[in-house]
Design a protein that fits this description.
Largest sheet: 2 strands, antiparallel
InterPro entries: 4Fe-4S_dom, ACDS_complex_subunit
Number of helices: 3
CATH superfamily: Electron transport complex subunit B, putative Fe-S cluster
Pfam family, one: FeS
Distance between the termini: 24 Å
CATH topology: 3-methyladenine DNA Glycosylase II, Chain A, domain 3
GO molecular function: 4 iron, 4 sulfur cluster binding; metal ion binding
Organism: Romboutsia timonensis
Structural class: alpha+beta
Keywords: 4Fe-4S, Iron, Iron-sulfur, Metal-binding
Strand content: 5-15%
Number of domains: 1
Length: about 80
């Protein structure tokens, strides 16, 4: 499947959105600027947002989930 991001098109067969989604807090708080955590992870997979926009992933106790999302997204 091909996606378009701000840098053009790229093929992304490696990112499983639901696999990443399961590590998000699923609060749908909208603090990241998106209507839901699923919307956030969709835009994250398209390189349209930054993992740090999810304030709840950065909270104490969520380090494991934060690192899992970073790993799946291949973020250093």
């Amino acid at each position: 499947m091909f996606y378009e991001n701000k840098n053009g098109f790229y093929e992304n067969n490696e990112v499983d959105l639901m696999e990443i989604y399961k590590y998000l807090p699923k609060l749908d708080c909208k603090n990241c600027g998106y209507q839901s955590c699923l919307s956030f992870v969709t835009m994250l997979s398209k390189d349209e947002t930054n993992i740090n926009k999810c304030i709840h992933l950065k909270e104490k106790g969520n380090e494991y989930n934060f690192n899992k999302v970073k790993s799946y997204m291949k973020i250093d």
